[in-house]
Amino acid sequence: MARLKSSAFLMAVLLAASVTTGCSRLGFGEPEAPRNLENFTAEEIYRRGEYELENSRRPEDAVFYFSEIERLYPYSEWAKRALIMQAFGYHRATNYEEARAAAQRFIDTYPGDEDAAYARYLLALSYYDQIDEVGRDQGLTFQALQSLRAVIEEYPNTEYARSSILKFDLAFDHLAAKEMEIGRYYLKQGHNTAAINRFRVVVEEFQTTSHTPEALMRLVEAYLALGLNDEAQTAGAILGHNFQSSPFYEEAYAQLRGRGLPAEAAGDSWLTNIYRQVVQGRWL
């Protein structure tokens, strides 16, 4: 945003000279309110907030000034600008819940504003940036996907949509990784049927992700362990057709060859339907 990069800090510096620095911190880390803040205009306070964003290591300090504009000048144009900047400041401070609240408030109050797209994007980012290691609960990942989709669908011709598409793919891959992690655990414990159910989810619902080759190879492994050779062969055939250069195909092929089995479709199972679709192009 152009406003974020503003270098017009003269008013901010003048305001800073009259405000106590190094003051005590309250609550979330807000600086103690200067007693004479009411004597400054909304623009002067806004510039002070910009100054804090550019120069302070504590984005919360900037949030304080932006929130004061809402309090002192609630119906002004500066209050509208300050609200979106609150969302940005909270996000930079990794206070994601507050960032979501401020962004949603902007969307609800100014749905037709030019910054509504950015507010929607910040809302999505507040979920996306909380996606951590694979082992954690995936609720935030689902929420990130939903929010990113909203940006893509509501503002398709914006830079935020383009960024959201990339992040959507990464979040989608993250969900597949979670299924793979659980499936591997079940396979290691000898719970082959439970493992198959997880790998099936990846093949059917996340087949565009980077985890599909391994999922097919693990299906070969799990079905062979259960003595279900037709299913194992079909999984190997799909893997060979789509990912023949993958090391996972080499491993699956070695397992099948060790049983004297070819990597070709056999029998009639859910994998046979996948084979008809992705290899033979038969969707009915």
Write the layout of secondary structure elements.
Layout: H1 10-18, E1 25-26, E2 30-31, H2 42-55, H3 59-72, H4 77-92, H5 96-109, H6 116-128, H7 139-154, H8 159-188, H9 192-205, H10 212-226, H11 229-242, H12 247-258, H13 270-278
Antiparallel strand pairs: 1-2
Explain what the structure shows.
Mean pLDDT is 85; it is low at 1-33. Helix 4 (77-92) runs antiparallel to helix 5 and helix 10 packs parallel to helix 12 (247-258). The radius of gyration is 27 Å and the shape is elongated. It has helices at residues 10-18, 42-55, 59-72, 77-92, 96-109, 116-128, 139-154, 159-188, 192-205, 212-226, 229-242, 247-258, 270-278; strands spanning 25-26, 30-31. It folds into 2 domains: 2-175, Alpha Horseshoe (Serine Threonine Protein Phosphatase 5, Tetratricopeptide repeat), CATH 1.25.40.10; 190-278, no CATH class. A hairpin with a 3-residue loop joins strand 1 and strand 2. Helices cover 67% and strands 1% of the residues. The protein is mainly alpha-helical and 284 residues long. It is built from 13 helices and 2 strands. A two-stranded antiparallel sheet has the order 1-2. This is Outer membrane protein assembly factor BamD. Keywords: Cell outer membrane, Lipoprotein, Membrane, Palmitate, Signal.
The number of domains is 2
Class from secondary-structure proportions: mainly alpha
Spatial shape: elongated
Strand order of the largest sheet: 1-2
Q: What is the CATH topology assignment of the largest domain?
A: Serine Threonine Protein Phosphatase 5, Tetratricopeptide repeat
CATH architecture verdict of the largest domain? Alpha Horseshoe
**Radius of gyration over C-alpha positions, nearest whole angstrom:** 27 Å
Number of strands: 2
CATH superfamily of the largest domain: Tetratricopeptide repeat domain
Tell me the helix content.
55-70%
Instruction: Tell me the distance between the termini.
Output: 49 Å
Order of helices and strands: HEEHHHHHHHHHHHH
User: What percent strand?
Assistant: under 5%
Low-confidence stretches: 1-33
Major sheet size, sense and barrel closure: 2 strands, antiparallel
What would the average pLDDT be, to the nearest integer?
Answer: 85
Q: What's the total helix number?
A: 13
CATH class categorisation of the largest domain: Mainly Alpha
